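G., the chain you wanted modeled:
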Amino acid sequence: GGAGSAWLAGLGDLRGPAREQAILAEVARGNVPAFLTRFVEVPVSATDRQGVTHTGVVRVSPDYVAIGDDQSFVRVPMAQPTAEAIAARYDCVLPTRRLVDQIWAAATVRLAPQPMDYRDGQRMMSNAYTARHQELIEAARRAAGGELGALTAGHKKDLVLSNRQLQHRDRVAIYGWHQPNGAPIQPLSTVHEAAYADYSHGVRLVSRTMIVDGREMRIEDVLRDPNLAGLLSDEGPIGL
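Predicted structure as tokens:
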């Protein structure tokens, strides 16, 4: 029982736009665990074209967007537009592929991916699959002694910012699901339409401001700057 699992169970077989609206409504009324709102600092560094090394600090949510409270929550997969709306609400953006790697490297709690049977696409998108994956992740987190609020990674694929997705706005970009050896199961992909979401997807929030060489900057300004984009991007500048 509890807030998150009860909410998810209450959705029944709801999916598509109606489920996306339900997710947005819960986030809008603040039905999110408190631990998620305390962001964690992740260090980044990169050498620019002139050979100058820049250092930065990015602030990220310690885990993926979830509904419920600290006692009972459920990490929710969602469509790309929903993820972008939630990020904007918190003055955040989605991570890039490079940031997903950096977050995994900085994580103090690393959970091994737990893939479920993927032969039935409809089941993969079901609320029942989401609930089951949540149970598996929580069992693994408790077994690892992972505290809520500690930077946690490896347990979901990330919805990401990518030039590939920005050129195909009708698609969702996913990446990650890092194995214990650091190799991601999911290479950067834009094969799915933007409305697609299955149990393995998660939404990590990245604060829209970061520190670069000791000063506060907006993420989009860093991503646009050819000399600074490398702090956040492994695919060159990204124009948000």
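DSSP finds eight helices and 14 strands in the chain.

Shout if anything looks off.
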